[in-house]
Amino acid sequence: MKTVTVYSTPTCVYCKAAKDFFTEKSVPFVEYNVASDLERRKEMIDKTGQMGVPVILIGDDAVVGFDKDKIVELLGIK
User: Fold this and answer.
1) pTM of the complete model
2) Contact 20, 72 (CB under 8 A)
3) Of 12, 23, 24, 28, which Cα lies nearest the Cα of 64?
4) Across the chain, which distance is largest between two alpha carbons, in Å?
5) Domains of the chain, each with CATH number or no CATH
6) What pLDDT is recorded for position 1?
7) Helix or strand or coil: residue 18?
8) DSSP H or E stretch at residue 66
9) Whole-angstrom distance, CA of residue 24 vs CA of residue 31
10) Which phi and psi (to 5°) does residue 15 adopt?
């Protein structure tokens, strides 16, 4: 399975929805809180040009927001 990284903030509803989805589907992921981790925030912006969250990296692909259809497609799950 591809590596999944979630850049999020504690108050983001869509971030929580994405993390809940990954947990429900037993998809392991690494989470970075970009509200408090300035280094990871810079990394997220450098990689994607995005400042909004969630930013989800699946392998080499970036998904901005909780785009469930795109996530399912990239992971090859149902």
Assistant:
1) 0.94
2) no
3) 12
4) 34
5) 4-75 (3.40.30.10)
6) 74
7) helix
8) none
9) 16
10) -65, -45
